[in-house]
Design a protein that fits this description.
heterodimer; A: Glutaredoxin; four-stranded mixed beta sheet; elongated; B: alpha/beta; Glutaredoxin; Rossmann fold; five-stranded mixed beta sheet; 39% helix; globular
Chain lengths: 161, 632
């Protein structure tokens, strides 16, 4: 028998953001903050609670770039692909990281569920270009080597656990 | 003796004035201050660690450190604050020393000891942390050429006050304009003052703000809304982020004044989720204003009630468009809709709505307190005031600047920006992001204002300036922006959804060396169709970067298409790698390194590269000890 899904996080999100249809984006954001993605179980549950169709919730979740329907790695690493970072060479960094971790633009998460590699539109930290963020912590002035150093140090930390 | 000021809720105008008096006294009596930049840029450089370290060292030395403004007068205490962005991100982390006005640049945690010992204890400047150009040393922030030539109106507090403190904002005259609007002015007076000032929307279009307010004021509707557009999505722009992070109360004050003017009771701030620090500072500012009673019901006994909510974006560029933004706040997909009706008649929750950009709201309070006449004295006659620009790309001084409207690009790039970074020559500057255009050498002396730029087919946009040098390929730049807009196209209308996709395909094949005769003309035709038929501003302006790069750099496109060469040497696929037979020693190191076996030859004789196999990865170039392998 499959394990029953624990809806307490969803209930908390509903209580925090208000159980109304106009709060759906905030509710989904709050749920995603916890799970790092949107588990499929939440859709029918929210549809019933908010009296809106599952399709509409799904339409919102797929429209906005920040929502993910797939499980993400423990460390979500984002590369800024804004103009300033692009002009100062963000692409070679991304390519190196992807090839060393064995991920692609389609398959974003490593098999060990440790890293998810994404690109993100301008973070507004253009003075520090090219930048990379690890779970929202900004790392400035990256090079392919520096980026790999950060990733390896996280790996070492995880292996030591 | 110093006494803690009791900050209780403000119930009347008198209460606010009393609080202001007490706070001003406390603020001015504290002469020694250390202000650590807490903007996104400096935080990433470790400024929070510097803050903690300074605090610990000062406490260990028995110094009287005050991190918040609560006492009056502040006898002999030293204020330690976290401010918003100073703008000089290139030199971060930044630390400002008051009362001397010194600016320490590129500060590290290890420097804290010296700052405490020398500057705080003895009042001496740590010269090695001061900014220098060659041998010239600039100790004071205001003397540095980057700052000296700016006029800071909207950003005047950024980097100078504690961004997390409503008390400090009140101490320097904050909420005075709101007080004036609420008690001394009629709503019509507020609207006419804004109209007189000729303030134009800082989000891009430059629509007169007073006109917008007037329309909402006269619109019929039980509920009206004030919405602040903080969805600053243009790559290379971070003016709004810096205001939200550095002076959040000023923006709230602008929205509150707008609320009084048009008779709205609720305001929403739509902020990008990519700006977590801005969200946090704004939430804190709203909570403080509510606690004091500056937001809520019957504010200061005036009968006016106003609340502000934050709506966090979820990563859709199109939500910067008015109707898409309000749809998103309502919990829907961020689709733009056909206009009219305009947002001023039918905006958020189908009600009349004032929708302005962050910088616009942040300008309002000063126009109300200093008057329209003062505002008109800055800038040009048709575009008064200042404009904040984010200066990025191949430029020496990356950062945030503010100059009067009508300032020339030459002054911005060469005097304030310090010229080009590296050995490249100035080639172009992209203004207005993916909806904007590129300006070239010929435009360097044009005054930057709404109307001049419109005449040459460009726009100020939100204020991103990306500087590009001679190593930047303009076709690749056009491809980059098209990739961005294509990715962000919401998919509602065909011209944008399909048209940008086709344009991107053509640009991709040109930079890969597969461009065909007629491709440039096809791009022009598609551009024309899309800009005339797309539903919203995002789609209509999507072809702009392509149109402007073709008109300014047509020969660069032609070289890509007909000669399969990239004049700037940037397009990877068009690079040709060859081995110089005169320099090659025939050691075979490169052929062993080549991942695709494209290099062959006899030992001790010059090797050669088979270009049909070569993937231009460059690993041979890195391997060759004799610099015999070259790229053209």
């Amino acid at each position: 028998m499959p394990e029953a899904f624990d809806y307490s996080i969803v209930d908390e999100a509903l209580a925090k953001c208000g159980a109304k249809q106009s709060s759906i984006i905030a509710i989904l954001q709050t749920i995603q903050e916890h799970y790092h993605y949107l588990p499929e179980e939440v859709f029918p549950y929210l549809a019933a609670k908010l009296d809106m169709s599952e399709a509409r919730i799904y339409s919102v979740a797929t429209f906005y770039e920040n929502f993910s329907l797939e499980k993400k790695g423990k460390y979500v690493i984002k590369f800024c692909d804004g103009t300033a970072c692009h002009v100062r060479g963000s692409v070679p960094i991304l390519e190196r990281v992807r090839s060393e971790l064995g991920v692609t633009a389609q398959k974003k998460t490593t098999d060990d569920q440790l890293f998810t590699i994404e690109t993100v539109s301008c973070l507004g930290a253009c003075g520090l270009a090219p930048v990379m963020t690890v779970n929202d912590e900004v790392h400035p002035a990256m090079t392919p080597d520096k980026a790999m150093e950060v990733i390896y140090s996280l790996k070492v930390k995880e292996d030591a656990r | 003796m110093s006494a803690a000021i009791k900050t209780k809720a403000i119930k009347s105008r008198k209460d606010l004035q009393n609080l202001r008096e007490a706070m001003t006294k406390a603020y001015t009596s504290q002469t020694s201050k250390i202000i650590v930049c807490g903007g996104t840029g400096c935080v990433a450089g470790g400024s929070l660690k510097i803050y903690e370290n300074l605090k610990a060292q000062m406490e260990n030395n028995g110094l009287n450190v005050e991190v918040s403004l609560e006492k009056e007068p502040h006898d002999n205490s030293i204020g330690l604050k976290k401010s918003g962005c100073h703008g000089f991100c290139e030199m971060g982390p930044l630390v400002r020393i008051e009362p001397q006005g010194w600016l320490y640049t590129k500060v590290k945690v290890d420097d804290c000891n010296e700052i405490v010992e020398k500057t705080i204890k003895k009042g001496e400047c740590v010269d090695r942390l001061a900014y220098r150009i060659g041998d010239e040393i600039y100790r004071k922030q205001e003397e540095i050429p980057f700052y000296k030539q700016q006029i800071r109106v909207v950003l005047e507090h950024c980097g100078k006050i504690d961004a997390d403190s409503i008390n400090e904002y009140i101490a320097i005259g904050g909420y005075e304009a709101f007080e004036k609007a609420l008690f001394d002015m009629q709503p019509d007076d507020i609207v006419s003052e804004i109209s007189l000032s000729m303030l134009r929307g800082r989000g891009g279009g430059g629509f007169p703000t007073g006109k917008k307010w007037e329309q909402v004021r006269r619109a019929k509707g039980e509920r009206k809304y004030i919405v602040c557009n903080g969805d600053e999505g243009d790559p290379g722009a971070f003016m709004d982020r810096s205001i939200m992070e550095g002076d959040p109360h000023r923006m709230l004050e602008g929205m509150m004044i707008a609320g009084v003017a048009v008779g709205a009771q609720e305001g929403y701030i739509y902020v990008r989720a990519e700006y977590p620090l801005a969200v946090r500072r704004l939430m804190n500012a709203i909570a403080q204003a509510e606690e004091l009673g500056l937001l809520g019901d019957d504010i200061m006994g005036s009968g006016f009630s106003f609340r502000i909510y934050i709506a966090k974006g979820a990563g859709a560029f199109v939500c910067g468009e008015g109707s898409a933004l309000t749809a998103s706040i309502e919990g829907k997909r961020g689709f733009p809709r056909v206009k009219p009706p305009r947002t001023t008649e039918n905006g958020l929750f189908d009600s009349p709505t004032v929708l302005n950009n962050v910088e616009t709201f942040a300008t309002v309070s000063q126009i109300i307190s200093k008057g329209a006449k003062w505002y008109l004295s800055i800038g040009t006659p048709t575009s008064p005031g200042t404009k904040a620009f984010a200066l990025t790309g191949n430029i020496t001084n990356t950062g945030l600047i503010e100059v009067p409207m009508g300032t020339t690009l030459r002054k911005i790039i060469f005097d304030i920006g310090g010229g080009m970074r590296g050995d490249g020559e100035f080639k172009a500057v992209q203004i207005g992001g993916p909806s904007g255009a590129c300006l070239t050498k010929d435009h360097l002396d044009l005054p930057l204002d709404f109307d001049t730029l419109k005449k040459i087919g460009a726009m100020i946009g939100s204020g991103g300036l990306v500087v590009m040098d001679s190593h930047t390929c303009m076709v690749e730049v056009a491809r980059f922006f098209m990739h961005f807009t294509q990715n962000e196209s919401c998919g509602k209308c065909v011209p944008c959804r399909e048209g940008t996709k086709r344009m991107l395909e053509i640009l991709e094949r040109i930079v890969e060396g597969n461009g065909n005769e007629g491709d440039i003309e096809l791009l022009e035709e598609l551009s024309d169709t899309i800009s005339n038929t797309a539903l919203c501003g995002l789609g209509k302006s999507a072809p702009n970067p392509v149109v402007s790069t073709i008109s300014n750099f047509r020969e660069e496109y032609e070289t890509h298409v007909y000669e399969k060469k990239c004049p700037a040497g940037q397009c990877q696929k068009l690079k040709k790698i060859y081995i110089d037979p005169l320099t090659c020693k025939g050691c075979s190191a490169c052929s062993r390194k080549c991942p695709v076996g494209a290099i062959s030859g006899k030992i001790k004789e010059p090797f050669s590269i088979d270009l049909t196999k070569c993937i231009r990865c460059g690993s041979c170039i890195a391997t060759c000890k004799f610099n015999a392998i070259k790229e053209v």
